[in-house]
Amino acid sequence: MPERILEVASLTKHFGGLRAVHLDLTVDAGELRCLIGPNGAGKSTFFRMLSGAMRPGSGTVRFRGRDITGWDAFRVARLGMSIKFQVASVLEELSVRDNLHLAAEFRFGNRAGQRRAAAMLEVIGLTERADHPATWLSHGEKQWLEIGMASVGEPALILLDEPTAGMTAEEMKKTVRLLKRLNEAATVIVVEHDMNFIRMIAGRVTVMHQGEVFAEGSMEEIERNDGVRDIYLGKGSHYVVRR
Amino acid sequence: MRRVWSSTETLAALLLLLPLLAVPWAFKPYAANVLAVYMIYGILALSLTLIWGYAGIMSFGQTAFFGIGAYAYGAIGLNWINRTQQTHAALVGGLVAAALLAAVVGYFMFYGRISDVYASIITLALTLVLFAFAVSTGGDEWVIGVARFGGFNGMFGQGESSQNIANFQIPPVTVWLPGMAEPFQFKINRESAAGYFLVLGASVLVYVVVRWLLRVRLGRVAIGIRENEARVASLGYDTRFYKFALFTIAGAIAGLAGILFAAWGRFVNPDRFGLGFASSTVVYVLLGGRTSLLGGFVGAAIIGYLTSYLAEIVPFATIPGDATPWMRFLMEAGRRIVREAPLLVQGAVLVGIVLALEDGVTPPLSRLLTRYRRWAWWVLLPVVVLYFAHRVACLQADWCLF
Description:
The complex is a heterodimer.
Chain A: E1 4-15, E2 18-28, E3 32-36, H1 43-51, E4 58-63, E5 66-67, H2 73-78, E6 81-84, H3 96-124, H4 139-151, E7 157-161, H5 169-183, E8 187-191, H6 195-201, E9 204-209, E10 212-217, H7 219-224, H8 226-233
Parallel strand pairs in A: 3-8, 3-9, 6-7, 7-8
Antiparallel strand pairs in A: 1-2, 1-4, 4-5, 9-10
Helix pairs in contact in A: 3-4
Chain B: H1 7-26, H2 29-54, H3 62-84, H4 88-111, H5 116-135, E1 143-144, E2 147-148, E3 156-157, E4 174-175, E5 184-185, H6 194-215, H7 217-234, H8 239-265, H9 275-288, H10 295-313, H11 325-340, H12 342-356, H13 362-371, H14 373-397
Antiparallel strand pairs in B: 1-2, 2-3, 4-5
Helix pairs in contact in B: 1-14, 2-6, 2-8, 2-9, 2-10, 3-4, 3-5, 3-8, 4-8, 6-7, 7-8, 9-10, 9-12, 10-11, 10-12
């Protein structure tokens, strides 16, 4: 049986009277897991709680066997979890290379960090733009840079929040190849809206709805699920989450 | 990788340093004296540039660390100079006091997760509290050894008797190292420009150290924090620690400026903690350009020159007898405004510059220098060198061409 890298139990977050997230979820090491769900399903809030950017209301998060509930973001990152935020948040005034270097330096130090950064430039295909400030990059390039920053430190778990938002079909194909390559070394959880992308990735899919896990299974199973279709078409409020 | 030191920077360094090195021989001691204080303010401004321009933490009260450095140097220096004939302990004490204050304040601000907006308010409050405290130390009980705080009148020594004038002032930086026959004082006067070179050396040293800091991990993380703190934290960096460390270093640099100030003027009073000086420091940085390490020096020099020389020239300009009443009124008003309110002049200059040049004065200047560096190498630099060589020859040996 594969090792459980992430175990989330009754993780809850309220915003005022609204329960944004109430979630149980486990992810095995080496998985490429897709997290889908309509807007407001709580996916990004969930990610923010996992990565330490937001403190959960209650519940526990176990990562690599340790309880990391409520840890600061930098400690979570040191334990081997990295995140690409939904809004591209590269360090705009630093060069592409310096962005990657900063992300790699923490684990590998200055010199080795430079080598890792150069290698990652190749992987994400931005070698020619290495010395441009990140602010000059196109939208798609910024997303790749973010994915590169999230993975250059060789984390055990990579969280990617909408890595293909606003990408062209061609860019999306490239991103799929990139993700599969990253998945060879790390567990990856991807939040996405684009069903084509999810099909291309062909990983296990978890559907979130109103902050809870609505369904889980392979893409075929999910596509056959009438409930999932309905929540995406807006009839989902009739459905009660199976628990 | 980019080169560590570009040819334009070498050029800029020559253009600045050659004249500055020649100043004590090219002009009367007064010029060196004035330039020294501009550079001291420049060091203070550089400490603000470091944390504001590079780490994005606006500290309105860098003057708190400047003032603490000055007062600590003064208190220790006054007490030790007569016993040991040197100010080594005062130098160390001033630096430690400033760094310690910055570390304590920084610890509570950054580990207490106070947002950066409040950091500027807290530091401003700190300097104003210190101002209020320093003002209220006029009584006889505010004495450390022979050093009296003196309230508004500033710090001075009591001496053995009230007639002992020599003990009254804060000592200049004085070193007496093993192997030296007698102590050496860094003063600026007709005989010596050692104090000037001490300040120049300190400026260069601080500049080089800060430049280096910004190239190592501390500096890169600082710039990352300015750009997006949450992102940097999610890469594994404890941003609180980096902000704390940088704030402490900046405090120590401001303290060094304070020490040099107290030793330069041989005097310090509560004004160094005051709102006027605190805002001036921000103005130096804004005017010079807060993304340029030289910006603070440039800003301090411009403002210093404008306020002292405008105040000197305008009030004594004679109003012509045949001036119309309106002209007479305007000249009189201008004269008074400039004389009475240097801050008003600073404000006007600042507004003008910020409207015209977003990044301050220095970045456009350095772009110009980069663009016309051939001209600068072959025309500007020789002209500057010749001008200063002529000044030196004229003043020292009376070989004047004009």
